[in-house]
Amino acid sequence: MEVMPGAGRRRILVGALFAFLLVKSLLFALLIPAWLGNDEPNHFEYVLVMSGVSEADAQKRILASLDSTGYWKRSQMPPPLGAVSSFVETELKQHSEDFVGTRSSLYYRLAAFPVWLSGSATVERQLLASRMMSVFFAMLTLWSIYRSALMVFGGDIAVSLFAALFAGLHPQFSYVSSVVNSDVLMFLLFTLVFWRVTAMILAADTGVESLLALFLFMALALLVKKHALALVLISMLAIPIAARNLRSAAVSLL
To answer: Are 186 and 226 in contact (CB under 8 A)?
Structure first.
């Protein structure tokens, strides 16, 4: 019997694992009831605004959907007294105030793209379309974890696949990456920064392209959340290492 080459087995294992994680993420996105993601009504309001819907209309559409889908009972949040047309008249007001200043965040602009493509679909279908963007970010996150693990563990395929599997099955990650939430893009950018820092330190990948990629990921992280400043400061630790390696390479050429 012909033995499958190592490279072929590797592609099959990696493909099978990521196909499984993709199916799992899609199932979570489909099965988690509408609006039950963490602060999902507020997050999706900003997504709708970024897609061109007025704030007042966005809130009216979401509130109508909250009533029809039984959100108030499922979320155990006090229901509004009578008919309402604005978040200000509900317990969602406090959450809206917490998000002041994030409406132009990079995440909401990207999550608005599938909503814009969905056209005149119901708000529930638009929410699901926006959740698909979270699934996409989640798969990129798991891929960057796998690539980073390959460097950290010396190319060990089994350990690297387990790292991606462990992250993909983590309850918090599974939940956040299947609903409308800006944290999912933050996860992705954090792992991309870690991937580039790992390459600089362990693989001596300190070329101009690698440095530009690191700065790009850090800049994008700041566009998602101000809390990314701590990530930027930590990442700067790799810069002296990169500078030292570049100087050593220049000296060897001379």
So the answer is: no
Q: Whose structure tokens read 């679909």?
A: 121
Question: In the structure encoding, which two tokens stand for residue 40, read together?
Answer: 């999902």
pTM for the predicted model, two decimal places:
0.83
In angstroms, rounded to a whole number, what is the distance separating the alpha carbons of residues 17 and 25? 12
Is the CA virtual torsion 213, 214, 219, 222 positive or negative?
A: positive
Amino acid at 110: L
* The total number of residues written for the chain in this structure: 254
Number of Cβ atoms within 10 Å of the Cβ of 12: 11
| Helices 183-202 and 106-117, axial angle in degrees (round to 10) | 120
- Give dist(CA 189, CA 196) in Å, integer: 11
DSSP state, residue 87: G
Contact 62, 44 (CB under 8 A): yes
The tens digit of pLDDT for each residue in 78-130 reads 777 777 778 877 777 655 545 545 555 888 999 999 998 988 899 999 999 99
